Amino acid sequence: TIQWTPSSLGRGRVLYVVQERKHAGLQLIPKQFDSWRTRSRKRKNRHLLTSLIPGHWYQVRVAAVNINGSRGYSRPSQPFTLGMEPNKPEEPYNLTVSRQGWVDGRLSAELHWRRPISELPLHHYKVFWSHCVKLDQQEHLPSNPCKPKSVIVKHKSVPYKNTNFILKDLEPFSLYFIQVQAITIPYGPKKLSSEKAAVFIDTNILQNASYNWGAQPQNVVKGLRVLSFHRTTVDNLEARLVWSASPARFLVTWAPHASCTSVKNNPTYKATTEALQYSIDHLVFNCKYEVTVNALSHSKSTKITFTTPLCPQVSSKLPC
């Protein structure tokens, strides 16, 4: 509660106008006070200050007004603070993936969140994302997909005025773990950090029907063929594929044909590349394979079938 000596403006009722200003921080820095704001108009010569926030400095001033006018505001009070440490901000609210799809031929996802409650002004947000596991097309989200010590975590700072962020260059058929944290302005030597809000992004584009972010660029793969075969080890055969298309990121998928009895379970392999060529591996000799290539921004794929040569037919210094 603040109080002051009653006004001596003379006869007539007197109205007192109370104004307040503040600034955040551990140390008092007068030039950082914000503008004066009117908090109350009353006839009593005292006022109860409410809604004071820890971690802030305050000043008040009072003006007496009657039917004849006012002599102006009093000198500001001595700056004061609550003497309490501010709490860390709450975590960002409602972290969601608002849309996901193709932007300039890149697989992208846009995050949105709501500004959290914070006693100190926010300085920025920090967005973390990690590529957790590779998903097969028919695989459901694993119950515990991320192991903190087994993933690389990337991060980016976002200005406090923004509550959205676009993740770019995501891999298809993958799971990403996303976190957003609020960071305050410095309070003395430190900044206060919130807990992290979290969400998963599944980029399995063959199942997710929400991938419709504007028009997808039309980029059809043409001239897909096997350029050459070569051996990297005694047991590993590779085939170099080439094709023509506009610049983009491409998904390469290959698997042995059902007629290839020398391969068990007919595994399917996937890889992405930005080049107009790719060397597929895990091949066996004298086996029929099916290969498809498509630009990630275009659902139509190009498919070829070929049979690998016998071991003696591949030029190599390695023994057969």
Automatic annotation (TrEMBL):
It comes from Graphocephala atropunctata. GO terms for biological process: neuron differentiation. This is Fibronectin type-III domain-containing protein. Residues 1-87 form the Fibronectin type-III domain. Gene3D superfamilies: Immunoglobulins (2.60.40.10). CDD domains: FN3. GO terms for cellular component: cell surface. It comes from the Eukaryota. SMART domains: FN3.
